[in-house]
Design a protein that fits this description.
The protein is built from five helices and no strands. It is mainly alpha-helical.
Amino acid sequence: MSTQTGVLARRVDVAPTTLLVAVGDLFFIGLFVLLGELSHGVEPLSQPLLVLDTYVPFLIGWLLTSILGGLYTRDAWRTPKRAVSLTLPAWIGADLVAQLLRATSLFHGDAAVTFFLVAAAVGGFFLTGWRVAVAWATG
């Protein structure tokens, strides 16, 4: 157990800024999903479970890749360049995980190359933009 705690401690800085970054990440992933659902004619207020079912695979993917990649350490947003170099690959990994999850019977939708590319671009834009803003604000 202590080995697992040590590994997690090296990948997550317990600090107010880390919490702010995590909340922002969740917000921007949610914004990406929400805008995508709206663009496909989904009414989020009348179909919240459908929206949640789209959000959760990306959330799972992001939690896996961001924690494994150390994206919740101060180093991850030390500079704008560092923020981009870590955030974009982590998001692409999260997108891949999400697509694989969507290919199962656990979630609606399927794994589609076009959706992977759109998610990589739009979600990547939101998350890297957010992380660059954090780097500028805290640098």
